[in-house]
Structure formats: C-alpha cells, structure tokens
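Notes from the pairing session

We agreed to fold both candidates in a single pass and log them together. This is the raw record for the first candidate, unedited. Please don't reformat it; downstream parsing expects exactly this layout.

Candidate A
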Amino acid sequence: MAFWTQLGLLLWKNFTYRRRQTFQLLIEVAWPLFIFFILISVRLSYPPYEQHECHFPNKAMPSAGTLPWIQGIICNANNPCFRYPTPGESPGIVGNFNASIVSRLFSDARRLLLYSQQDTSIKDVQKVLGKLRKLGNSSGL
C-alpha cells in the first residue's frame, strides 16, 4: 500500500471512532483551544516591552575560594541588571569586589591581626605610665 492510502485509511478510522464518542471529541478539540485562548489573553493583557540587554555581576563559585564565594552571595543578593558589561565579565577575573564592604572588613581584620603581632605600643604605654609615676612621685602628688 502506498503511504497516502494508509494515511487516508487511518484518518478515516480515527474520524469514525471519534464521531461515535462526541463528548470526548469535543473535549479533545476544546481543551487545546481553551489553553490557547488563555495564552492569547495573557499576551494581550501584558504586551511585551523593550528592555536593554542585561549584564549581571559575576558570582564566584565555591572552588574560587571561600571569600570570593561569600562576597558573590552577599554583594549581589539583589541580582542587579546593568546596561553595560561589568568588570567581572573579563576572562580570568574571579571577582570585582575589591571595594566591597566584605572585602574591606576582611582586609581591616587582616591588617589588625598582623599589626597586633608587631605592635610595640603597649610597651610604649607602659614606659609612659612608668615615667608618669616617677613624675608624680617627684612632684609630691
């Protein structure tokens, strides 16, 4: 049998079967049409608007290190959309968070921790207090 003959017989058989079950036929035809009209009404209710291209700030993966990963989560929590490419889109750049609050917090903490190991100001304070005591004792206070 030829392809068109088989297709014609199959369509005739399907049509005969569907004609005997009218309610099922109506549901099978009306349901896709109903969904299609819902989509059309939503599209007409909310017409598309033109928006500029969107560049999102980069977010480091955990494999880049804990600090860049946490900065990516905290600094981009609101996920802003920029009109122009962000600095982090360049290849080889892990994060563009050098001026972020988290980065400054960690750099300040690091500087304080490193400074406290080399700090001699406590010894200087002790010297000053000793000299003040001597000065107080000599003046009779």
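Candidate B (folded immediately after A)
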Amino acid sequence: TMPKEPAALRQNILDTTAAILACGIDPKKCFLFRQSLVPEHAELAWILGCLTNVPRLLRLPQWKMKRASQNSEGTVGLLTYPVLQAADILLYKSTHVPVGEDQVLHLELAQDIAQHFNKKYGEFFPVPKAILSEL
C-alpha cells in the first residue's frame, strides 16, 4: 500500500520466495505463485469493493493505526486492502483460513462480503471460517 522502488520490490519478491522455499514449502506439493500476476485477484477485489461500504472499512483498527502512522493521509490502497484480502480468500472458494488475532476482523469482513454477495446473486462463495493458532 506504500510506493516502492521497482528494483527493491523485485528483490523483495525474490527474497520472499527464497525464504518460503527455505522454510520447506515443496513446490511439487503446493502452488507457489505471484499474486500480482493473476489479474482475477484485482478484478474480484473491484467487484467486491463495489459491494462494500466505506464506513465499514473506516472502522477497521488496522486502517486507524496505519493511517495514523502515515500522518493521517492514508491511501485508497490502504483503505481497500481488506477487500483485496477478501478477494484473495474468496477467489479460491476457501472454507478455512489460518489467521492471527490481528486479522480476525479482516476475515469477518470477508465473511460478510461473501454473505452479501450470496444473498444478492445466489450461493456462490463459501463463508470462510477462521483457523486460529494458539501460537
């Protein structure tokens, strides 16, 4: 949600990929891909954003905290990031999502968006449930 130098962004992508592989993720057993290369993520985020009201996003604590750290000039990308997260979850019709305590409200937003979409257009998205870790 913050502008990055293109060269630094490319290097961060490579570093993150290397770290994921170093942790033992086996690309023969799971899909590893760059989300930004899958246009359906952004397309679904746009559709879901058209179903999400701004006051709901403004109430999210992460928006308030990050906006404060950006001198009260939060960006549209920062505000709508939880909708992109919902699209990331719903695009794959996920039924269970591992989340930390700090992301529970974002998952609840994804649940609400799925329910709203299903009510308006018919049952399409499963309503994802949180998998909370004790760690």
